[in-house]
Amino acid sequence: MRTFRTPMIALLAAAALPTGTGAAAAPTPASPPGQTAVAIPREPYPAPDPIYRMATQDQGRILRHGDGPDQCDLNGAREPSIVSEDGTYYLFYDGAGPTGWLACLATSTDLVNWTKRGRMLALGKPGDPDAAFAGSPWFIKERDTWHMFYITARTATPPPDLVAAGPYNAMKATSKALTGPWVKTAGFVPLDPRVGTFPDQMAFPGHIVKHQGEYLMFFGAPGAVGIARTQDLNAKWTLAPEPLFASGHYDIENSSVYYEKANKTWFLFVNHIGRHDGLMYTDATWVFWTRDINTWDGRNRAIVLDGQNCTWSTKCIGMATVLPVGKRLAVFYDAPGGDSVSHMKRDIGLAWLELPLLPPGSK
Q: pTM for this one?
């Protein structure tokens, strides 16, 4: 579920299955062949806020909306996705233009000065999966080809906002260069959602890593994240039958993964979806951690960024994506600023964590 589009409270409620008091153990998601599932205690719903906070330093806004080529981000810039190659940083983001939200690109060599390069995708034809939205892309390179998996929607709200309406799904494009041109794989939907069971009605792309000979995608579903697998980037992905966390339902979306070699720990950065004064919006970036990428205990979590430590947005914090830069981990995110929770007029911000990244409470 993408909260910046049409809220689907019913789907979130269905995803949060009864959890009792938290004393009972729940089975973990299906493990890969040869691995044994471990019982993990389940937390009540809604789960309490994390007891830990990361020592995050917020730099503030780094990319403002409004001045992109051909009015590509006239009404907003959000959903950052960062890639680094040969000394250049490629910041993909969703730009809100006159025809809708589309994946745009800005590049930099120092994370300070940015050159906006405009739209990287176009809307599909009426009736196509991406007729109303084509954005929030995630990337993986195989040999000399970049593979982009992006989120789609067939309908959107009326102008000028043109916010995509669910259900959301996925399409794929490829290019020899991150600057494009990007060629869509016509008619190909790499993620197949299910009906009545996870992922219910929608599945959309997230961060991709290569691990032990296969690709893992931390895909999104209503209020949850799961793992999809493939060995062939041109084929359908196999979606996990259960959400990532056996320990409970956490009302989260979006995903960005970082592996800390110093302590052999995987860190998963996500958006937390909060409910405040009758409104539902992303109010923080959380991080979860594990030593086993296939098994996650949601009790291992901390707040990375929220209204307390963000220097310019006191209520709403949008999607985060992370990238190691020297001895620090860069955390890119979007926000509307002030006490706004609007989908529109957002900018891209940057925060930092020191490396090596340590799980809170560890020595």
A: 0.92
